[in-house]
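Bumping with the actual sequence this time:
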Amino acid sequence: MASSRRPCEVSWFAALCDDDYEQLGVPNADLASSWDHCSRIVTTAERLGFDNILLPSGYDLGIDPVAFAAGVAGRTSTIRLLVAVRCGELWVPQLARQMATLDQMLNGRLTINIISSEMPGESLDTEPRYRRTAETMRALRSLLNGDPVSRHGEFVKLDIDPPRARTVSGVSPLLYFGGLSEPAREVAAREADVYLMWPDTRERITELIDDMSQRAARHDRVLRFGYRTHVVVRETEDEARRAAEHIVGALDDETGAAIRARSLDSRSVGVRRQAELRVASSDDGFVEPHLWTGIGRGRSGCGAAIVGDPTQVLAKLNDYRSMGVDAFILSGYPHRDECERFGATVLPMLDHASLSG
C-alpha cells in the first residue's frame, strides 16, 4: 500500500450536537450547544492553526450546522468549515444553492460532510437510504459543478439547470462521507472525495483502506482517507490516562446507554463496530497501544480516543498517515480546552496544510 507523505489536513470538532462535557453524562450549561459556545470553539481552532472544523448535525441535538456556518463565516478567515448535511432534508437544487452561497461567504473555504442517516420521524431501510444518498450526492455535485441535471431516479427526479449561485472555484467542494455497511462502502467508492473512518485497530484500518481503494479503482476513482477520533493529550502518559478516566469517571451504564441511543445512527454497522471494540479491549479500555475505547461508553458514533503524551499522540497519527490517511477530524473533552492542548503541543509538530480540491 502506498503511504501518504503529503501534508495532512487536521480538523477539529465544533460541538453543535450537544456533545460537550467535562465528564460524560454530567450536563454543564456552560458547555451546552449554543451560538456563543460553538463559535468560540471555531475561532479557537482557527487561531491555533487547524485546517478545518466539522460542524455536526443532529435534529434532536443542538443547533443547525448550515445556519451556524453562515453566521460564523464572517468571524473566520483561514479555517475551512466541514458542514454536515443530511440527505433528504432539503430539495437538492435548494441545497446546491445554499452550499454555493456558503462557499461564497467563506471565500472558497467550504467542505461538505454528507450524512446518510434516517430523517427525524422517518423509518427507511438501509438499502433505499443509501440509494437516496447516492442520488443526492451525484445530483448535488453536478449542480455545484455548474452542470444541468436530468435525472429520474427513485428519490431525485429533476430536469433542471444549475443555480446561478456558484462556488468560488466554480466546482463542487470536497464531499466527505463515511459508513461501514456494504451499501455505504459502494456509495463512498462511487461518489465521495474523502472516505471517513471511525477508530479501529491498525489491522482493521489497513483492511478498510485496501478494500475502499479497490472499490474506488473499479469506478476509475481515487479516494482520500480521513480518520475521526478523540484525543486526550497531556504532558505525560500517566497524566493522559488519568484525564481519560476522569472523562468517564461519573458515567454509569444506564446514562451511557441513554446518551448513545439519542443519535439517529445509533443502530448502524459503524456504531456496532465501536461497541465491538469496547468488548475486545483490555480491562483498562485500551484495544491497542494508545487507542482507548472507554470514551465510547458515553457517546454514539466515534467511540475511541488516542491517549498519550504529545510525542505518543504524534506517533500514532503519523502511523495512520503511513497507512494512507491524509485527513484527521479530532475532538476532545471539553472541546475548547482539548483544542488548546492539542493545538499547542501536537499540531505544531504535524506536517499539515489544507487539502486542495
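The C-alpha cells above came from a reply further down the thread. The CA atoms of residues 226 and 282 lie 26 Å apart.
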